[in-house]
Amino acid sequence: MNTQRASLTVNTQRGSLVPRDVGSPGKDMQLRVIPAEVKFLDTMAGRVYRLPITVHNLGRWNQKIRFKEPIKPQFKLILTSLDKELASGLQMTAMVEYHPDKDEDTFDRLLISIENKTTEIPLIGLIPSCKLEIESVVNFGTLVANSKVYSKEVTIKNRGKAPGIFKTEYCGQLPILIFPTSGIVDAKSSVVIKVDFCADYPRIVDEEAIVILQGQPEMLLSIKAHVVEQIIELLNMSRDRRLEYIHFGPVFFGSSKIQHARIHNNSPEPINWVAIIQDDAMGEEMGTDTRQRTDIALNNLTYIRKIKNIDTTTIISCLPNEGTLQPYQKTVITFCFTPKLMADGKKDIGPSYRQDYALFLRFESVGSKDGFLRDDDYKTIKSERFQKMELALTGTGLPVLLQFDPGPVLNFEPCFMGERSEIQCIIKNQCELLPLTYHFEKTANFKIDPEKGEINEGGMVDVMCSFVPHQLGVFKVKQKIEIIGLVAEEDLQSLSIKPFHHVYLNFNSICKASTKKVVMKFDAGMLPLIHNPMGNFVVKDLAKRKNYAPVAMLQSATPRTHNHHSCEEPVKDVLLAFPNDRAATIRSKDHDKHFR
C-alpha cells in the first residue's frame, strides 16, 4: 500500500484549548493539541496518507488522557493505547492515517478528553482541487483623452492540482471590454485575460467587474484610470507662467528683435507639434498704421494689395516650428521680429510714419485629436482648446530718420594743402521711441570727429566735419553714414551687431595751389681778379606757409651721367666761374688757372 504524508494547512504552532463541555466552569483545560485541524489535501482513492498530532500537558500535575477514534473508517488513529497518562510539561505524538476509497471529500473528528473536558480536532480529507488567484486591481494610470484604446493584462493563476473554471462580467456604461469572459485554468498554470479601455473623454474611472473563480466566493475586479486632456502650453522664460502674447515693441526697419518662450507638453504621452502662422485671423494687422482712421486705410487699395502678397515668415519667424515633446518635457523656442519697410506711394515717410504688425501663431498637436466616439460638439470644441494654442505676436516697425543741420550738402571753404576747413554739423534723431548708433566711414581728405556715437530718442549730437586736403583739385564726395544695430543671423535664432541702414552726406570743396613772388636782389657774389661789374639774382619765396608737400629732387651731382667721356683725364685745379659773370669779364693773366 502506498503511504504518503499529507500537508497541514494551519499554523502548527497553534493548538486547541477549547473544552467540549460548555457547562463546566471557566477554568482552561491544561492541554494543548497541535494542530487544531488535520487536513489531508489533494488525496486520491487507494492511497494512504498520514499526519502527526501532538498533545502537550501544560498543567502542574499528571494528566490522564483518553482518545476516541474517528467514526468513519477512512480515518484511523495509530496509537498503542487510547488511554494515556502524561506527566506535567511533557508531550506525546500520535499518528492519524487517512486512506480514501473514493474520490470525494471526507470529514470526521478526533475527540481528546481529560476528566470531564473534551477537545474536538476536525479531520478533513480533500480530493485534488483548483486554487485560483487573480489580481484585484487593474490600474491604467494617467491617460490622454485621444480616443485610443489602452490594454492591460491580468493573470489568473491556478496553484492547485486540478483545473479550475473562471468567469468575468462587466455591467458598466464605460467603453471597457474584458476578453475572454470565461475559461479553464489548468493545474499549476495560468491564463491571461485582457482588459481594454478607450480613453474618449477626460474623467476619473473607478469601475468594478465581477469575477467568479471555482471554489471561491464571488469577487470584484477594480478598474481604475485617470483620463486627462493633451495640453500644449507656452510658458515664459522666467516664472513658467502661461504665455498668451509677445510684444516686441518698436524696432527699426532692417533690424531685428528676438524673444524666447518654452513649449510644454503637460500630458503623460509624447506629442508631435507644429506652429502655423494664421494669415487670415481676425484682428490681424500687417504693416498698417493702427492710429489712422479706418476709412483712410481702406481707401489705399494699392498698398493693401501690396501687403497681402508679402510672406509673413520674413517678418516674424518661429524656430523650431515643429518637433516632438516627450511626456512633461519643455523646450525653448525662438521668435524673431524683422520689420521691413513697405513704401506707400500716398504717404511720406516722416517722423510719424510707422507700420504696426499683429500676427497670430497657432500651436497644435499632430495626430489623433477627435475620435469617432466623440459625438458631443461642445466637448469636442473644448478638447481642441487644449490641443491647440494661439499666441499673439505684436510689434511696430519704424524708419531711421536723421536730420542734418546743415545738410545734406556741406560746402567747405577752399584751402591750401596742409590747412583745413571745418563745418560743425548737428545730427538729430527724429525717432522719439528708439535710440540709434551711427558710424562715419573713412573718406580721403575729410575727417569726422567723433566718427562713431549714439543718439538718444529725439536727441541731437554735434559732429565736426573737417576738410583736410592732401592733394590739389576739386572734391565732390559722398560721405557714407552707417546705422548700426542688432541684426538676425541666418539661423534666425541669434543676433549680431551689424550695419542695417545707410545715409549719405555730400561734401564739396577745393584745394588751391600756393602762389610765389620772385624778387631780383643784387649780391656781390664772388669777385674775379679783375673787378668788373657783376652780381647775381636770388629767388625769395614770399609764401608764409612752412609746410611743403614732399617733392623728389634730382641729385645730378651724385651720378656721373653728365661727365664728358671725350676727356681722357679729369682736369685738375679748375676754377668755377660765377654763373652770372658778365661776358666782358677779362680772364686772368695767369695761364695756369683754368675756369669752367
Textual characterization of the structure:
By secondary structure, this protein is mostly beta strands. It has 5 domains: 3-125, Immunoglobulins (Immunoglobulin-like), CATH 2.60.40; 132-228, Sandwich (Immunoglobulin-like), CATH 2.60.40.10; 232-398, Immunoglobulins (Immunoglobulin-like), CATH 2.60.40; 410-489 and 499-512, Immunoglobulin-like (Sandwich), CATH 2.60.40; 520-596, no CATH class. The chain has 3 helices and 41 strands. The strands form 9 sheets. Strands 21, 23, 24, 26, 28 and 29 form a 6-stranded mixed sheet that branches. Strands 31, 32, 34, 36, 38 and 39 form a 6-stranded mixed sheet that branches. A hairpin with a 2-residue loop joins β9 and β10. It is elongated, with a radius of gyration of 58 Å. InterPro entries: Ig-like_fold.
Summary of the model, kept short:
The protein is mainly beta.
Architecture of the largest domain, according to CATH?
Sandwich
Q: What is the CATH topology classification name of the largest domain? A: Immunoglobulin-like
State the helicity in percent bands. under 10%
Q: Return the average pLDDT rounded to an integer.
A: 81
Which CATH class of the largest domain is shown? Answer: Mainly Beta
Q: Which assembly state applies to the chains in this document?
A: single chain
Weakly predicted, low-confidence segments: 7-27, 370-375, 377-383, 534-548
Our count of domains comes out at 5
Number of separate strands = 41
Query: Strand share of the residues?
Result: over 45%
Shape: elongated
Number of helices, where a helix is a run of at least 4 consecutive DSSP H or I residues: 3
Largest sheet: 6 strands, mixed
Radius of gyration: 58 Å
Supply the CATH superfamily name of the largest domain: Immunoglobulins
Q: How far do the termini sit from each other?
A: 166 Å
Which structural class is indicated by helix and strand composition? mainly beta
InterPro entries: Ig-like_fold (IPR013783)
Biased composition (Polar residues): 1-15
Region (Disordered): 1-22
Protein name: Abnormal spindle-like microcephaly-associated protein ASH domain-containing protein
